[in-house]
């Protein structure tokens, strides 16, 4: 757990520090995830950290999300709340929520199960989801701020999650899943490999491209990923490492 939690905190702090240097007016600039603004994005992150903290603490707020017929309605509540707050207060809301997640996770084993919106998962995977969401929404904010941000080795967690969730993504699109081997080159020429060695379906290339495909921030035709097999081709279209 130490490795993933250290990277989770680093990812959150990097985004936090980036927000400290921007004029207040930019908080209401619309991000690529229209119609969300920078303010809306941090409000969403804050809301989900609070939800995660409540789950870990044994609360039942998650049941509202599990039984909701329209999750977007619940997301909009956080957006509305954030729009009534000063930017610094939104940041403090987010900081408070994420602290209440990381601290208890640090006392859990990596295999301990945690309930979430679409089923339960290990504590390690849960922490990875928090990092992925911070990173993905961070991409939207950095683009809005016109900041050039280089990927770090932390991206490997997003890459792994993108591969791990492929069976669910295929099922969500009514497709049969076949094992897929993903071979990636990350920052500093790191090599990360996921999936069985004998898989006939393969995706090879940049970790940056695959991670952005996994969080739906780019389209398949915007990557230089090399694919082999029909399932691999479909994976670029349906991969989605988030709810």
Q: Class by helix and strand content? A: alpha+beta
Helix content: 40-55%
Tell me the number of strands.
6
**Helix and strand string, N-terminal first?**
HHHHHEEHHHEEEHEH
* Global mean pLDDT: 95
**Under the CATH scheme, which class of the largest domain?**
Mainly Alpha
Give the termini distance in whole angstroms. Answer: 23 Å
Count of discrete structural domains = 2
CATH topology-level name of the largest domain: Four Helix Bundle (Hemerythrin (Met), subunit A)
What share of the residues does DSSP label as strand, in percent? 5-15%
| Largest pleated sheet | 4 strands, mixed
Please mark out the parts with pLDDT under 50 across 5 or more consecutive residues, or reply none. Answer: none
Overall shape: globular
Using the CA coordinates, give the radius of gyration.
18 Å
**Main sheet strand line-up:** 4-3-5-6
Q: Number of helical segments?
A: 10
Could you say what the CATH architecture of the largest domain is?
Up-down Bundle
CATH superfamily grouping of the largest domain: dinb family like domain
């Amino acid at each position: 757990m130490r490795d993933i939690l250290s990277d989770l905190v680093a990812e959150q702090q990097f985004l936090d520090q980036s927000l400290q240097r921007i004029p207040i007016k930019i908080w209401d600039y619309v991000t690529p995830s229209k119609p969300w603004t920078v303010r809306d994005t941090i409000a969403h992150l804050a809301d989900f950290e609070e939800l995660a903290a409540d789950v870990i603490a044994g609360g039942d707020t998650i049941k509202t999300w599990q039984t909701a017929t329209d999750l977007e309605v619940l997301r909009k509540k956080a957006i509305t709340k954030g729009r009534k707050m000063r930017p610094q207060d939104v940041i403090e809301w987010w900081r408070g929520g994420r602290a209440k997640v990381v601290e208890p996770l640090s006392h859990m084993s990596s295999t301990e199960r945690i309930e979430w919106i679409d089923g339960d998962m290990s504590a390690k995977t849960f922490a990875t989801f928090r990092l992925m969401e911070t990173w993905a929404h961070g991409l939207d904010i950095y683009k809005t701020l016109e900041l050039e941000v280089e990927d770090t080795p932390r991206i490997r967690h997003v890459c792994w999650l993108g591969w791990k969730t492929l069976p669910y993504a295929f099922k969500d699109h009514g497709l049969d899943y076949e094992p897929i081997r993903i071979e990636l080159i990350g920052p500093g020429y790191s090599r990360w490999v996921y999936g069985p060695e004998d898989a006939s379906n393969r995706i090879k290339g940049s970790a940056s491209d695959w991670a952005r495909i996994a969080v739906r921030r780019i389209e398949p035709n915007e990557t230089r990923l090399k694919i082999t097999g029909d399932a691999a081709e479909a994976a670029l279209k349906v991969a989605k490492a988030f709810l």
